[in-house]
Design the sequence.
């Protein structure tokens, strides 16, 4: 089974900061990697699919990159509404979708 | 409005069964694969199970294989999760999620989520 890891597990940042979150797969998953944002008490929201494609309605300050085993989610200028937990998810395995453990972004 | 509404959660004793439902509206339900994702209190997301548009392809996480059964009724725009032999570690908020693809195959993503239904397994 494909295992997903994320780093860091948490980070503190200020409004306006550039934030980068890393996700690593235990084997190559090509570009079959999605990113989600979850705020407390809310359902997750799809941000990025296929490693770098921005979901409709998501602000352009969010971007994704990577392929193979290493991926990044970047927030170019952190906004107050971006404080949340971010999860990566692999969609390479047919009928099996694994999430990473999450990265919590909070206010410095 | 595109919407998923889960129901059927509650408090259940270990070893008992529970059936979750998810009612879909605002999109063509039988065009898409569907999934169940759970989140234990204070923990991360765990994919539980997925089903293709025509129920021809089904997958389960190892943690629930043999105990949970996913199904769908396209005529009723509904998704189900039959949960048997429940354990304390199954305690979680269960989300229903829509896939961007029809076949729960490689490359899908979960673009619509419900608000979840809470399952608590305790004696």
Sequence:
């Amino acid at each position: 089974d494909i295992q997903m890891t994320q780093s860091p597990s948490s980070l503190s940042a200020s409004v306006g900061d550039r934030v980068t979150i890393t996700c690593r797969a235990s084997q190559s998953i090509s570009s079959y990697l999605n990113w989600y944002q979850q705020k407390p008490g809310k359902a997750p929201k799809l941000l990025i699919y296929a490693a770098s494609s921005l979901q409709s309605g998501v602000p352009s300050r969010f971007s994704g990159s990577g392929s193979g085993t290493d991926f990044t989610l970047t927030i170019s200028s952190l906004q107050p509404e971006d404080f949340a937990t971010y999860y990566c998810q692999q969609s390479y395995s047919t009928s099996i979708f694994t999430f990473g453990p999450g990265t919590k972004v909070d206010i410095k | 409005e595109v919407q998923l509404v889960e129901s059927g959660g509650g408090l259940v004793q270990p070893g008992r069964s529970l059936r979750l439902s998810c009612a879909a509206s605002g999109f063509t339900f039988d065009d898409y694969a569907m999934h169940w994702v759970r989140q234990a209190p204070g923990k991360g997301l765990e994919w539980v199970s997925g089903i293709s548009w025509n129920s021809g392809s089904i997958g389960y996480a190892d943690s629930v294989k043999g105990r949970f059964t996913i199904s769908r009724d396209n005529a009723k725009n509904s998704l189900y999760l039959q949960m048997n032999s429940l354990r304390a570690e199954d305690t979680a908020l269960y989300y229903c999620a829509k896939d961007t693809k029809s076949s729960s195959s490689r490359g899908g993503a979960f673009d619509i989520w419900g608000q979840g239904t809470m399952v608590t397994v305790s004696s």
Q: What stands out?
A: Chain A touches chain B at residues 1, 32, 34, 36, 38, 43-46, 49-50, 55, 85, 87, 89, 91-102 (CB under 8 Å). The radius of gyration of chain A is 13 Å. Chain A has a mean pLDDT of 96.
